[in-house]
């Protein structure tokens, strides 16, 4: 639906800041969306507006009342966006910090001798937190190996290692290294078959910009996003927690309300920009469907985004016009396979005879922004088993175009293997 409508693509691009140029570099194509998506212009305007307001929430004056109303509206918008009929949303320092806090709380409240289960595909934000707090709480950590060839972990993989004493589980919704999405609902179903009371926490940071979030369908206890990867800005993360997780003893001020999870005064502008993101999804849903209900428009937007990004990644992998795709270039290896239906707007590659940083630098010199993933504490869990010291991550979003893909293919097709 987006693909067939050039006017809509232009309208989408017009809503984002710096869509085709960098204030430091000049004209450029942005294929580094997994590192942080482009920012909505409305988010920039909202941030500036709230940054100038000196008042705090919780006072008895008109400004304070307006700030509280803004935050309440943002939380209602988040519930709409993520289809959350219960539980609560709150802001923290970052997505990583929130994952640590949720996982820590679940672990220290787990029964003595219980287990924590997670997978080797996870980002270190959840994997590090689970292993650290399992150790402190005296719990056994169970590792579910992912499949190196597909870049995924499946419900069957979790099921094979599940036991009734698993009290905490972590799941990655989408990998920022392989680009593959996981079947969260299917994994949860397998976990709850064996350990129905397990606290399940999901890292949705990479997935949020590329597809729909449906908390009502997942049956989880925690879900974390980083808004800067979903068209907002840096400086905060958002967590949703179930009523069960809300009620657990957790870090809080003495004599404070028992359901409170936030520390200190949060940035009202950060919350307000969440509403800007939700309004954008609603607008896009209205452009690609006849829906009038806000949630139905959000679902339509998610479907259209997924379909268009699939088209773009297929063009990247299999070619466009007379240009060969990455899968057809003998000197290019595609991580997790070229034909992988779980892919969410991201293709990672290695180029025979060329170090990934050199390729990224070449692309940057030609006005194309990509990124090197190294086999370090962020990506070694994925790259080390493949025998790779690094790879080139090309991450797209629905404001990218087939013409931008073609320019990248043209450069890489001429990059002959080094002698």
UniProtKB/TrEMBL annotation:
Keyword Transmembrane: no
Gene3D superfamilies, A to Z: Aspartate Aminotransferase, domain 1 (3.90.1150.10), Type I PLP-dependent aspartate aminotransferase-like (Major domain) (3.40.640.10)
Domain Aminotransferase class V: 29-408
Species this chain originates from: Pararhodobacter oceanensis
Keywords carried by this UniProt record: Pyridoxal phosphate
Top-rank taxon, per record: Bacteria
Name of the protein in question: Nitrogen fixation protein NifS
Keyword Ribosomal protein: no
């Amino acid at each position: 639906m987006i693909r067939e409508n050039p006017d809509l693509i232009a309208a989408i691009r017009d809503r984002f800041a710096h869509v085709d140029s960098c204030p430091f570099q000049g004209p450029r194509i942005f294929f580094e969306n997994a590192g942080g998506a482009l920012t909505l212009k409305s988010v920039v305007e909202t941030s500036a507006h709230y940054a100038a307001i000196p008042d705090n929430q919780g006072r008895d004056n008109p400004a304070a009342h307006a700030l509280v109303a803004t935050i309440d509206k943002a939380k209602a918008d988040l519930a709409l966006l993520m289809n959350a009929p219960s539980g609560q949303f709150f802001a923290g320092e970052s997505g990583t910090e929130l994952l640590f806090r949720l996982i820590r709380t679940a672990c220290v409240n787990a029964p003595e001798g219980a287990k924590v289960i997670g997978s080797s595909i996870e980002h270190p934000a959840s994997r590090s937190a689970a292993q650290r707090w399992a150790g402190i709480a005296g719990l056994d950590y169970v590792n579910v190996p992912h499949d190196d060839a597909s870049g995924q972990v499946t419900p069957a993989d979790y099921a094979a290692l599940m036991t009734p004493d698993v009290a905490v589980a972590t799941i990655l919704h989408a990998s920022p290294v392989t680009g593959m999405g996981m079947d969260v609902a299917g994994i949860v179903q397998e976990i709850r078959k064996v350990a129905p009371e397990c606290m399940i926490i999901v890292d949705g940071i990479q997935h949020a910009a590329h597809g729909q979030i449906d908390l009502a369908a997942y049956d989880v206890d925690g879900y974390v996003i980083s808004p800067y990867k979903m068209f907002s800005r840096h400086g905060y993360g958002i967590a949703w927690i179930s009523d069960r997780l809300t009620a657990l003893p957790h870090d809080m001020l003495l004599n404070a309300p028992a359901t409170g999870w936030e520390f200190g005064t949060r940035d009202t502008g950060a919350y307000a920009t969440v509403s800007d993101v939700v309004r954008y999804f609603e607008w896009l849903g209205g452009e690609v469907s006849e829906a009038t209900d806000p949630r139905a428009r959000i679902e339509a937007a998610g479907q259209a985004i997924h379909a268009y990004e699939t088209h773009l990644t297929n063009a990247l992998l299999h070619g466009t016009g007379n240009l060969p795709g990455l899968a057809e270039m003998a000197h290019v290896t595609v991580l997790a396979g070229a034909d992988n239906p779980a892919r969410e707007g991201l293709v990672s590659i290695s180029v025979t005879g060329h170090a990934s940083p050199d390729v990224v630098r070449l692309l940057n010199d030609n006005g194309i922004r990509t990124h090197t993933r190294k086999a370090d504490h962020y990506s070694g869990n994925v790259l080390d088993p493949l025998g790779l010291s690094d790879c080139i991550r090309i991450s797209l979003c629905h404001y990218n175009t087939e013409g931008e893909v073609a320019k990248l293919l043209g450069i890489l097709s001429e990059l002959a293997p080094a002698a």
